[in-house]
Write the structure tokens for this entry.
Amino acid sequence: MIKKLLIATTLLIYTAAAYSQKGYKFTFNVEGVQDTVIYLAGYYGAKQYYKDTTKVDKNGNFVFEGEEPFPGGIYSIVMPDQKTYFEFNITEPKFTMTTKRNDLVMSMSVKGSEENKVFYDYLQFINGQQKKAAPLRKKLKNKQEEKEENQKSKKLDEEIKKVKEELSAIDTEVKKYKIDMIAANGDKLVGKIFSTSQDPEVPDAPKGEDGKPLDKDFSYKYYKAHYLDGVDFCDERLLRSPVFHNKLDYYIKKLTIQIPDSINKEADMLLEKAKCKKEMFKYVTHYITNSYEKSKIMCMDRVFVHMAQEVYCKDLAWWVDSAQKAKICNRAETLAPLMCGEVAPNIILQDTSEEKWINMHEIEAEYTILFFWDPGCGHCKKAMPKFKAMYDKFKGKGVELYSPCTEFETKDWKKFVTEKELNWINVSDNPEINKNAAKYIHLTTLESLNYRDTYDIFSTPQVYLLDKDKKILAKKLSAEQLDDILSDKLDMPRTIREEKDEKKDAKDSHGEDSKKKDKPKKVKKS
């Protein structure tokens, strides 16, 4: 019961800022624990970490103390098994907590900390309500099973109705207790934590004369619009609790449509709310930037670029040094022209004859595939038959493929193009152009000659799909993905399918080649 209770309530209580007083002393006694080492763990965002250890005497007494201010937040006393623990607030510099190892919550007594007393009053109330509800739930289950066997029993209907009413009354009592607790402790962190963890109550949607909702999305819109109402973005103490992180994470990833423009709009709103506190602003910036910088979802680099341009490059990221800011801004500058929706930078290079210059922007096609590759690249060689089959399928149907070779030497490239009958537009900056760029610049452009940097080519193959205006529709595509996209757009059947690596699948299914790494131990909620 202790473990289930704390799992259910771990989001409900977290804590405070650094003290104005100097020094701290937190005294504990846990009956049933003696002559061992105990751990103090804390939160930052969604993660827990060990912060300190101390010895427990033969009577279960132990103390954490120091002369410097202790940063406020939710902390945990972790038992010697490193699994079971109880949580508490640090909002006062000195307090005492006493409990029993086999009954951590219901046996808890608090002195010197009003916030922890409020919290454990709540936990003990909830525990009591759970004990009242447990037999009723069991009774309801049994009655419902009886009802399945005797569908016409009115007596069972009345009994089921009565049990449901009793459970509903308990639920109403719990909700009222929580609402009253928040109202009475709104100026305390414990109240703010409960307020943050609250979900908005959605009213019935307005209805028209026909009785139907005027807006079918009313519930979603209302819920999202009020989801952050209880969050105090100007209280940095919330960062030392998972409630803020969980709220932020759910809002961005579940309530926000996962397209860059929508995410960027919400990011701006969140940053505006958080700018009143430096650490809060830092956390929101870091969370959103990191979440989408390495996203596997196509085109999400637009979020990273937006965050870089709006925060880091405007010198608002006070926690980052000048060298790191320069690195981030340079990266954003490189990626900005390569984002979905942007016109792809033009490339003008020679074909295999080394006589004709081909301008990518002048290609007349509904769709242009931009395909960077290298004849010495193993991945390219493996993928090439599929790209060849894909191109042959769409050739003559409004699709063209423009393919710069990234290898400086062109002998192997020309040989590969000929042997594999690569009948698309093959171009390269051959050795002559590389040695005498000034001689040819009037025929091309600087960004064309530096296309490896222009297109951020650090590995091959790299693939972009462009529309008729050469705007980027998609990128980092396989032949199979191109086939899916173009088949949909041109109303054609899909034919290029991904081959399964049966040998690898067999090994994975039996675990023969899998190497499991030992993960660091986590403090488990209990």
About this structure: The chain has three domains: 1-218, 219-338, 348-503. The radius of gyration is 32 Å.
